[in-house]
Amino acid sequence: MPHWIVPLAAHGAHSFAVELARYLAAAGGMTAILWAGARWTAARRIQKRAPAKGDRAREFGHSMLSVGIFALWSIVTLAMNQAGIIHMGFALPAWWQAALEFVAIVVVHDAYFYWMHRGLHTRAMFRRAHLTHHKSRTPTPWAAYSFAPIEGVLEGMFLPLFLLFVPMHAVVVLAFLLHQIGRNVLGHSGHELMPPGFTRFPLTAWLTTATHHDLHHSGGGHNFGLYFTWWDRWMGTEHPRYHAHFEAAAVPWFGRGKTKRLQA
To answer: How far is CA 56 from the centre of its chain?
Structure first.
C-alpha cells in the first residue's frame, strides 16, 4: 500500500467531519430556533404551502453528497497551500486587515455566485446541475447544501480559485465559511425574520432576505443573488413584487400581528 494512502484517508475523514459539523450546526441550529420560537416565528412564515412530505430527508441526503464534495475541495485547497500555489497564512492578522479580507471575499463570492447561478438556470445546465436544488419549492434550512454534484463542484471551487489571486489569512477564511453557511440557512429558513421596512432602509436595503431567496425557489426566474441585492437590481432580475412579498411576511420584532401572504 502506498505510504500516502493512510494520511490522505485520515485527512479526508477529518475534512468531511468538519464540513458535516458546519452544516449540521447551521441547519440544525436554525431548525431548533424555528421550533423553540414557534410562537414568534409562526406569523413570519413566508409561504402558505408547507414543505412536502419527505422534503427534509431528500434535502439532507443530497446535502451529504455536497458535504463530501466540499471535503474534497478542502483537501485540494490545503494541498495547494502546502505546495505554495496559493497562500493562506495561519498567523493572526491586524483587525483592519482581517476586515478588508473578509469584505473582499464576501463581495467577490456574491458576484461569483450570481453569475454561476444565472448559468445554472440556462437550458443546457438546469436539469443536470440545478434541478435538484429547485425540488425544494418550499425550502427548509436543510436545503442549504441540497445540490446536484455539478453544482456542488461549482460551489466548492470558489475558495481555491479566489485564493489563487488573493492571499488570505486562515482565520478570515474560517469566518467567511461560517458567514456563508449562516446566510445560506437563513435564506432557506422559510421564515422572514427581518422586520418591516428592512428592504427599504438605506443601511439594509442592499442585503438579501429570506423572502428574497424564497421567491427564487417558489418562482425560479428572479432573485439570483446570495448576500446582496445589487446584482439583481443592476441586471433587472429582482422580483418585481419583492418588496410587497417581504412586507407581507415581515412582522415587527417586538410587535404582534398576522401576515398577508402573497402569491409568487
So the answer is: 17
The boundaries of the domain holding residue 148 are 5-249
Cα(233)–Cα(185) distance, integer angstroms: 23
For 131-186, where are the E strands, in sequence order?
Answer: 168-169
φ, ψ for residue 235, nearest 5 deg: -95, 5
As a whole number of angstroms, the distance between CA 62 and CA 98 comes to 33
d(CA 85, CA 8): 19
Tell me how far CA of residue 17 lies from CA of 99, 105, 247, in angstroms. Answer: 28, 24, 39
Cβ 236 vs Cβ 224: under 8 Å = no
For residue 261, being part of any structural domain is answered with no
Query: Which 8-state DSSP code applies to residue 221?
Result: S
Task: Determine the Cα–Cα distance for residues 262 and 264; give it in Å rounded to an integer.
Answer: 6
Q: Is 26 within the bounds of a domain? A: yes
8 A C-beta contact, residue 249 and residue 45: yes
Look at residue 16 and tell me if it is in a domain: yes
Rounded to the nearest integer, the mean pLDDT of the chain is 94
Residue 241: all three cell numbers together: 413584487
Contact 104, 168 (CB under 8 A): no
Structural domain total, the chain: 1
Rounded distance between C-alpha atoms, residue 96 and residue 259, angstroms: 42
What mean pLDDT comes out for the span 212-222? 93
> Is residue 139 in some structural domain?
yes
Q: Name 45's bridge partners.
A: 191
pLDDT tens-digit readout, 160-178: 999 999 999 999 999 999 9
